[in-house]
Amino acid sequence: MPTSKAARPRRASATRVAESPRDARAIDVGVVGAGYAGSAAALFLRRAGHRVTLYEAVADPGPVGAGILLQPTGMGVLAQLGLLDEVRARGAVVDRLRCVTTSGREVFRLAYGEVAPGLAGLGLHRGVLFDALFRAARREDIDLRLGVAVRGVEGGRVVDVDRRPHGRHDLVVVADGARSALRPVGPPTVLDAPYPWGAIWFVGADPSEVFRHELFQVVGGSRTMLGFLPTGRAPGGRTPLTSLFWSLRGDALAPLHHRLRFRGLQAFKDPILRREPRAAILLDQIQHADQLLFAAYRDVRMSRWHERRGDTQLVFLGDAAHAMSPQLGQGSNLALLDAQALAESLAGGGPLAAALARYDATRAAHLRFYGRINRWLTPFFQSDGAALGAMRDALFPLACASPWVRRQMVQTMAGVRRGFVLADPIPLPELG
Description:
The structure is a single chain. With about 425 residues, the protein is an alpha/beta fold. The protein has a domain at about 20-95 and about 115-195 and about 300-380 and about 420-430: 3-Layer(bba) Sandwich (FAD/NAD(P)-binding domain). The protein is about 30% helix and about 25% strand. The protein is built from twelve helices and 22 strands. It has helices spanning about 35-45, 70-80, 85-90, 125-140, 255-265, 265-275, 280-285, 320, 330-345, 350-375, 385-400, 405-415, and strands at about 10, 30, 50-55, 65-70, 90-100, 105-110, 120-125, 145, 150-155, 155-160, 165, 170-175, 190-195, 195-205, 215-220, 225-230, 240-250, 295, 300, 305-310, 310-315, 430. Strands 4, 5, 6, 7, 14, 15, 16, 17 and 18 form a nine-stranded mixed β-sheet that branches. α1 (about 35-45) runs parallel beside α4, α1 (about 35-45) runs parallel beside α9 and α2 (about 70-80) crosses α9. The radius of gyration is 22 Å and the shape is globular.
């Protein structure tokens, strides 16, 4: 079968670092939030010659959290920042995504190699990516303001929770996460709502690498989803890790904690062991309920991602702009791409408002596609609709039987889709 233009993404060099043309105007930038999007944006903009102040609410931020799946798109951004080798050294290669039912029937198996030979994702402890970006920001000539919780923008200054003003910025980059305190002062928000479903997470030592090379999921209808992600090594650690996640309704968290405290941890462990006996290597490490982390998610859509506030422009990046379900594992990758695209849009020169309009246009198709596909796909894996689970189990194997459809699904997993069927995908970076 001939391969369509959409089925085979082009490759692009990942060694180029974004630079401003010599006549581009250096501006004063305030970045709110030192997470992935904020730290990456601060790095790109400072290296492009702009004056950058990075505000972070936490006085002493450090690496926390469970596992993430870094896609080739996100790795390409890290390569531009010169951080990929450092991050990849602590990650775990993930070649495929595999999903089976509780009865052992395979729902799908998606291998990155369907798109390009040698292509893979990277299972990573969240702290490794944070650590690499934040330490790089510390090494640059960036004004770090730690312990400053920004809650507003007035007269070109950011204002903290105590109503104290800071800086005077031409541009404020808002990257303070899914529960952004600044979203109400930005462009109209079309949607800002919690997902009814979240997940319980545990990151445990997996010295024998029982779970390796794949993100493995076990599903039972649309109410049960159990997953295992190889997570590499934690910052400063030597032992390979695996992240376990168990899908859970948000309103089930309190009853679960009650059962765990009064009936013991077996109430949590036994259902998992019945579905995947190999999980014992992780579950044996859980001695008390406080070792478990509950992650809740939001669905955020904005009408656009930039807004003028007096003499200052605001632009929203990462989860502050477009939080979504983690079903496709794209959150950190989209945040990194936002930061890269913003720097490249500013490098084009011209009025700041025009540069931000270019940023919107650059990111629109990609972000809208992943927002839509997440909203459509998530109910088949996390919902109370029993029929949706049955439809998934019947239709996904049929879809995966088509090489063309399977390539589209792998491109979506790899983070390069910008639309459906005929849309031109993002070029794959050369990662070595």
